[in-house]
Amino acid sequence: MLSRPVTRPLRTFGWLLGLAACFLARFADVVQLPLLFDDYTILEKVRRHSFAGLWAPSELLYGWYRPWSRETYFAIIDRLAAAHPIAFHLAGLSLAVACLVAFYLLARRVNGERAAAVASAGLAAMGAWSGALTWGAGAQETWMLLFALLALHAVLSRRDALATLALAGALLSKETAGVVPGVMMFAMLWIQRESLRTAARRIAGPVALTLAWVATHPTLRARLLGHAAAPEAAPASTGVTAMSVAIKSLGAFVNCERVPRPDSGLVPALFEGLPALIILVPLLLTIAGVGKFKSTAGDAVDAPDASSRTRAATFGGAWAALALVPLFAPGLAWAPY
Predict the structure, then answer these.
(1) How does 245-256 read in b/e, with b if 16+ C-beta sit within 10 Å?
(2) How many CB atoms lie within 10 A of CB 310?
(3) pLDDT (tens digit per residue) in 212-248
(4) Phi, psi for 204 (deg, rounded to 5)
(5) Spatial separation of the C-alpha atoms in residues 227 and 189, rounded to whole Å
(6) How far apart are CA 318 and CA 294, in angstroms?
């Protein structure tokens, strides 16, 4: 029998490879899509500016300041691949798979291998990915998510300086990253079981960075106060109540933000998801049969005790609740992604 140092990495590699195959089987067809809407607007801007000029807080597209995930990202792909749609879609798929890997590894640290496998499978199955993957501009979502996950990994490794640096990347990718310090705080309190005083000391850097970002952001304060509505969101946000936002947001976790009625029809939609399902189900059955293994320092065991499971569930629930807060911002259109 192989020892754990060999079997666990191999098992992890096999699961992540299968998870990526499942995800790509579901979304591989996006590489056939052309660039869409915002993509052309962003390209028009980046072709008129140097890399340094793209970071200036001026000429903000749609009133948002996202110099890394939007302008710089588009400029790099445009310079390297002449803005070919396939280049954008391959980069977008790669970012999404990186998010899945980072999430799985994070969930495994928090609550063990089986829970991480089920959670990452659920994440891969979420329909909300389609909004981020069908156009190049969707990378704003995936860059923010990837940096946020890296920040949480750094927190759990007690590398607070790296956590703050990753948070900076998330903030420069999308404004919704403003809630990440709260998630980091929850991780310190419920996963690492830090005292409130110690957690407050450790979170001081990320909080200071976030407050400085809010203070210097060209439009965010006005938006939060309701003084400036997003021009692209105003029509869609008309008549949207807090209750409808809550219902749609909770429904999106299980791909039911509205009554299921696929544009292509129910049967074609089922067949589109079948390849991913054929890969995913055997993977879950395999991980369910993985035997227990002894833990080592710093790792969550495969079968955490009741206290660990409770803390993990509390952390996950608080993370989800905090992540939904930006969707209630005034003037913001709701979308599954």
Answers:
(1) beebbeebeeee
(2) 12
(3) 999 999 988 887 776 655 454 444 444 578 888 888 8
(4) -60, -40
(5) 36
(6) 29
